[in-house]
């Protein structure tokens, strides 16, 4: 393990100084994009880990592309063979435009299967659409975490 | 390069140049107007002239955080996060996400810049930087630019550079890209989108993938008394891998894909609607190997009808040729589907949802050995039957999913029937929920997978007042029981969860949680018990900027009935987050 270098310490101090004058009025402006994105992805991954098709389907838009029922069937089939699923994920990118939020996520997954514990990882783009105040999954790209 | 290929490229490039040169109005991206935006079609206000000194002062005036009045010309805002982690792993370390005796740091900066420009235009820039030595997060221990977006826009037009998401139509393009994007409103009934971008840089056996695309949307009948929306779109996109972007990588394939299509949406005020899309694609899997382009067609039609709030019916017809390919769109090749969905509000207390879905593959020119057909019915009834208890709700559902094939051995045949119910209520100020589900799965001739499966559980949560401060507690249990016909054994899993939050003092709060996963499975050496728990203290240093310092500890124990697999993890993290 490397010890923190001088530039690193200096950067940390600078950053701390930067955020120190924390006094003003008004709400945060558009600083919650990553929180929204993280919450939407977390809810989806939790629903899969919970193993309930109905719970997962609630988070998938009726307009999911290309085929909603096919996607749910695949998710359901994968969930049958996995137990005690745990995800660790990192948000790489969040793009919000109109009623669409695109979240690129790097994830690691642990699950108990007939072959014992398995570990997989991947990079997935989740596309969410705003429906009645909720973010519903409308498309995925890249690796399939389910 | 084939002549047809050149003609398609030229056509798309002409479209790109045509729409790029139009400096007119569009469907603007999410833009923050500094007190100068308009809502509901009101006439846009013209930005007053700001002296350069004021512009600089406004930009750098971090003390005026949250003051976004019309008299402010611009600002810099964002969020910074600093985090340090220590992890320790004992036992079989190869099974853990973490490394033993490991220290990681993470610094993230999200920077946003807004500036009013001439007329009613505004500049918005956003950059996201990250530095970490966490190898699971970043392969490089350096400052990495994760996201950059620069946009000039008003309510109608958008010129965008950097990372952006664009949505032409389902079959043609809906993707995150990196490059340039222009969305213009040429008139009340004519909008255009133009994209020149790439999906990703080259590397790891992938050539850089270049994208050129254009879209025209017509929106006639805007004021028609019977029409609430009428839109017809024509779009084309060319996708080409850049072989010059990567040297000597035999694993990389030089793909080429052109997709063009027409889509539309018609919504009448009487509740009738129609959505459709027709697209045609040309695709070369690897231009270095073969020059033959394959062509395919995709079609989707979705008529619907909604009668007040009582009844909604929607039909979907979907057919995508096996040869249809879209690298930046979304389609399920070699598939035909027919789906009917209905929502019927029987009365104020009951709503019934029905879905009938058929789909199959092995369309003409498919390379599949046999056809697999799916026939599915989904029925769900949502009830709030008690007039005096509006918090009480009951949802029951029944799913029937049948799959069969036309191969001689019927290898894909199976049937799944699922019956379930969930109930929610509020009892003695506590939120209470419970659920149960039964699933019966049969397959033939491979009956070894046949099984019955039960899921059940409950959850309780409630707020308490403890020493005049809020204490929130929740507890839940989930049980799974799988009865396999082949092994004649039962797999059982139990999950137990406790979570809580207590406001210790005005700026200090505490979160804690415990989770148990226990399994007794019939398979050899498949039993396990997983205990995870965490405790977190969060201290709010400043309310307005949401400046929070948090300390979290997390312990996870994994125990198996097979030797040599047990391991345990401990993780401690200190994090500071603040808006500015």
| Helical content class of chain A | 25-40%
Instruction: Give the overall pLDDT of chain A as a whole number.
Output: 79
Alpha-carbon Rg of chain B, integer = 29 Å
Name the poorly predicted regions of chain B. 10-33, 35-41
Q: Classify the beta-strand content of chain A into a percent band.
A: 35-45%
* Adjacency order of strands in the biggest sheet of chain A: 1-2-3-4
SS strand fraction of chain B = over 45%
Overall shape of chain B: globular
Task: Summarize the entry for a quick read.
Chain A has helices at residues 6-19, 33-50, 53-57, 68-80, and strands spanning 83-97, 100-113, 116-131, 134-142. By secondary structure, chain A is an alpha+beta fold. Chain B is mainly beta and 580 residues long.
Describe this protein with a few key phrases.
heterodimer; A: 146 residues; alpha+beta; Nuclear Transport Factor 2, Chain: A; 4-stranded antiparallel beta sheet; 4 strands; B: 580 residues; mainly beta; 26-stranded antiparallel β-barrel; 2 helices; 5% helix
Description:
The complex is a heterodimer of chains A (146) and B (580). Chain A has 146 residues and is an alpha+beta fold. Chain A has a single domain (32-142), classed as Nuclear Transport Factor 2, Chain: A (Roll), CATH 3.10.450. Helix content of chain A is 34%, strand content 37%. Chain A contains four helices and four strands. Chain A has a four-stranded antiparallel beta sheet with strand order 1-2-3-4, with helices on one face. In chain A, a hairpin with a 2-residue loop joins strand 1 (83-97) and strand 2 (100-113). The two termini of chain A are 34 Å apart. Chain B is mainly beta and 580 residues long. Chain B contains two helices and 26 strands. Chain B has a 26-stranded antiparallel β-barrel. The two termini of chain B are 53 Å apart. Chains A and B meet through helix 1, helix 4, strand 1, strand 2 and strand 3 of A and strand 1, strand 2, strand 4, strand 5 and strand 6 of B.
């Amino acid at each position: 393990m490397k010890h923190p270098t001088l530039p690193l310490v200096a950067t940390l101090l600078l950053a701390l100084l930067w955020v120190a004058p924390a006094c003003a009025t008004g709400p945060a402006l558009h600083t919650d994009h990553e929180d929204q994105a993280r919450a939407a992805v977390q809810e989806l991954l939790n629903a899969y880990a919970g193993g309930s098709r109905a719970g997962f389907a609630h988070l998938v838009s009726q307009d999911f592309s290309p085929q909603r029922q096919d996607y749910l069937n695949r998710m359901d089939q994968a969930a049958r063979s996995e137990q005690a699923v745990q995800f660790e994920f990192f948000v790489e990118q969040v793009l919000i435009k109109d009623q669409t939020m695109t979240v690129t996520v790097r994830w690691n997954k642990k699950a108990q299967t007939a072959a014992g514990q398995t570990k997989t990882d991947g990079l997935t783009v989740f596309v969410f659409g705003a429906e009645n105040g909720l973010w519903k999954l409308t498309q995925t790209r890249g690796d399939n975490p389910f | 390069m084939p002549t047809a290929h050149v003609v398609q490229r030229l056509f798309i490039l002409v479209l790109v140049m045509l729409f790029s040169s139009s400096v007119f109005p569009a469907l603007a991206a999410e833009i923050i107007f500094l007190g100068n935006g308009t809502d509901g079609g009101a006439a846009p206000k013209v930005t007053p002239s700001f002296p350069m000194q004021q512009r600089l002062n406004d930009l750098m005036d971090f003390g005026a955080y949250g003051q976004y009045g019309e008299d402010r010309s611009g600002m810099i805002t964002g969020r910074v996060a600093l985090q340090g982690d220590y992890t320790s792993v004992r036992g079989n370390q190869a099974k853990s996400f973490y490394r033993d005796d490991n220290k990681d740091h993470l610094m993230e900066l999200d920077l946003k810049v807004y500036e009013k420009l001439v007329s009613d235009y505004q500049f918005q820039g956003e950059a996201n930087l990250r530095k970490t030595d966490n190898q699971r997060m970043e392969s490089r221990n350096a400052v990495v630019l994760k996201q950059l977006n620069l946009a000039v826009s008003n309510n109608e037009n958008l010129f965008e550079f950097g990372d952006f998401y664009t949505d032409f139509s389902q079959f043609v393009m809906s993707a995150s890209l990196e490059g340039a994007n222009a969305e213009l409103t040429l008139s009340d009934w004519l909008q255009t989108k133009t994209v020149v971008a790439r999906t990703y840089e080259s590397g790891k056996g992938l050539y850089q993938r270049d994208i050129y695309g254009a879209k025209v949307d017509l929106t006639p009948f805007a004021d028609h008394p019977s029409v609430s929306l009428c839109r017809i779109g024509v779009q084309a996109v060319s996708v080409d891998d850049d072989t010059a972007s990567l040297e000597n990588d035999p694993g990389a394939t030089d793909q080429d894909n052109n997709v063009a299509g027409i889509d539309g949406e018609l919504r009448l005020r009487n509740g009738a609607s129609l959505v459709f899309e027709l697209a045609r694609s040309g695709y070369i899997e690897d231009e270095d190997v073969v020059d033959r382009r394959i062509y395919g067609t995709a079609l989707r039609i979705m008529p619907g009808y909604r009668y007040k709030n009582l009844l909604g019916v929607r039909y979907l017809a979907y057919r995508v040729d096996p040869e249809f390919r879209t690298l930046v769109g979304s389609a399920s090749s070699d598939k035909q589907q027919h789906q009917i969905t209905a929502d019927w509000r029987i009365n104020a207390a009951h709503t019934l949802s029905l879905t009938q879905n058929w789909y199959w593959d092995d369309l003409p020119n498919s390379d599949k050995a046999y056809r697999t057909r799916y026939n599915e019915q989904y029925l769900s009834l949502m009830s709030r039957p008690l007039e005096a208890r509006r918090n009480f709700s009951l949802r029951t559902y029944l799913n029937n999913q049948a799959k069969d094939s036309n191969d001689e051995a019927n290898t894909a045949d199976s049937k799944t029937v699922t019956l379930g119910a969930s109930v929610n209520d509020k009892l003695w100020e506590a939120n209470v929920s419970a659920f149960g589900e039964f699933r019966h799965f049969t397959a033939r001739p491979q009956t070894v997978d046949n099984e019955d499966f039960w899921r059940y559980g409950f959850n309780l949560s409630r707020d308490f007042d403890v020493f005049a401060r809020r204490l929130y507690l929740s507890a839940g249990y989930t049980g799974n029981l799988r009865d396999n016909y082949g092994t004649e054994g039962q797999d059982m899993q139990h999950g137990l969860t406790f979570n809580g939050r207590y406001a210790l003092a005005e700026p200090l709060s505490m979160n804690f949680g415990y989770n148990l996963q226990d399994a007794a499975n019939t398979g050899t050496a498949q039993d396990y018990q997983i205990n995870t728990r965490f405790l977190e203290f969060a201290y709010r240093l400043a309310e307005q900027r949401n400046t929070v310092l948090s300390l979290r500890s997390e312990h996870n124990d994994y125990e198996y009935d097979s030797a040599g697999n047990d391991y345990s993890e401990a993780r401690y993290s200190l994090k500071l987050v603040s808006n500015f």
